[in-house]
Amino acid sequence: MSGGGTEASAGGEAAPGGGDKKRESLGTAGSPAHLIIKDLGEIHSRLLDHRPVIQGETRYFVKEFEEKRGLREMRVLENLKNMIHETNEHTLPKCREIMQDNLSQVLQRLQAASDSVCRLQQREQERKKILNDHLIASEKQHIIQWEDFMKEQHSKQAEVDEEHRKAMERLKEQYAEMEKDLAKFSTF
User: Across residues 161-175, what is the average pLDDT?
Assistant: First the structure.
């Protein structure tokens, strides 16, 4: 597709390296064959060799694209600059002021909540301590009552054992007397 070499040789220019002999053999500059070759070179150049046109169009497109892109990017950058400036000048100070106002309120509420929680924990600890003390006292009282009950049971057991022993002795004496009486009557 490269027609540059053909055009150069058809244009009548001297090719480097001694290509003049071939041209001379085709005829002189004004001969009809020479004109036909020249016309063929131009046709070939126009129809098949689009490099100069494409290069020109490409340069034009790139130039236009870069200019439009540059303008578009400049507008985007200018908008960003304006937004940043407005943010720095107006929005950030407002946010900072609102944050400081609300932060002090939040800190006050947080401190109040913390104090309430501390009071509740203290009350709960006091209640647990009282309950624990009551349980310990109640347990001690139950232990004392149990010990008293066991002493009482031992003393009652001793009394019952003593009564049983006495009753056994009385019964033994009674049976001994009955045996004596029976022995008296059996002698008859």
Answer: 92
Alpha carbon distance 100, 104 (integer Å): 6
3-state secondary structure 56-99: HHHHHHHHHHHHHHHHHHHHHHHHHHHHHHHHHHHHHHHHHHHH
Mean pLDDT of the chain: 81
* More reliable by pLDDT, 63 or 143: 143
Is the pTM of the predicted complex or chain greater than 0.90? Answer: no
What is the rounded distance in angstroms from the CA atom of residue 4 to the CA atom of residue 45? 8
- Contact between 33 and 79 under an 8 Å Cβ cutoff? The reply is no
Residues 6+ apart with CB under 8 A from 6: 41, 44
Per-residue pLDDT tens over the stretch 55-78 = 888 888 878 877 777 777 788 888
Sign of CA dihedral 35, 37, 39, 45: negative
3-class DSSP string for 101-155: HHHHHHHHHHHHHHHHHHHHHHHHHHHHHHHHHHHHHHHHHHHHHHHHHHHHHHH
